[in-house]
Amino acid sequence: MSRRNPSREPAAPPRADGATATGLLEAGSRRRNQPPPPAVVFEALTEPDRDPARPWLRLLDDEQPPRILRAEHPRLVVWSSLWPRRPDAQVRFELEFDGTYGTELRWTLLVSEPLPDQSLLGHLRKRMNQLVNGNLRRTFGQ
């Protein structure tokens, strides 16, 4: 049986069985430090096109700009899917102050069942990692 999120509410944290309270499954997650504080990273995630001199959300032909489904300044952002072929997907960003100046940023890819095949899943994870831990990080001078 497929677990759907008909209300399109943002995903909640995973339960012990891997599903979230809204029925979405964690399909990938990465955590990495970003140099600026959470408020700056939050702004970059909620307004990715705000600074045309520093573009980072460079989408491929099979991707679409995300919509903000949920935002709790400066700790949480949830995006709609970047991929029209997986409109059920969401990306959850958790931002924590790292104790010095920067941000511990975790992105989590959430999807409904069935999980994508391994090839597509690898592509989705790689793209999120490129966008967040590559492109976004470089805009902050790293």
Named at the architecture level, the CATH assignment is 2-Layer Sandwich
Corresponding CATH superfamily: START domain
Radius of gyration equals 15 Å
Low-confidence stretches: 1-12
Distance between the termini: 44 Å
- Helix count equals 2
Proportion of residues in extended strands: 25-35%
Overall, the morphology is: globular
Strand arrangement across the biggest beta sheet: 1-5-4-3-2
In the CATH hierarchy, what is the class? Alpha Beta
Structural class by helix and strand composition: alpha+beta
Integer average pLDDT = 88
Count of individual domains: 1
Number of strands: 5
- Please write the string of helix (H) and strand (E) elements: EHEEEEH
* CATH fold topology: Alpha-D-Glucose-1,6-Bisphosphate, Chain A, domain 4
How helical, in percent, are the residues? 10-25%
Largest sheet: 5 strands, antiparallel
Characterization of this structure:
This protein is an alpha+beta fold and 142 residues long. The protein has one domain: START domain (Alpha-D-Glucose-1,6-Bisphosphate, Chain A, domain 4, 2-Layer Sandwich), CATH 3.30.530. It is built from two helices and five strands, in the order E-H-E-E-E-E-H. It has helices spanning 38-46, 118-139, and strands at residues 25-34, 68-72, 76-80, 90-97, 103-111. A five-stranded antiparallel sheet has the order 1-5-4-3-2, covered by helices on one side. Strand 2 and strand 3 (76-80) form a beta hairpin. It is globular. Residues 1-12 have low confidence and may be disordered. Residues 1-47 are annotated as: Disordered. It comes from Micromonospora echinaurantiaca. This is Polyketide cyclase / dehydrase and lipid transport.
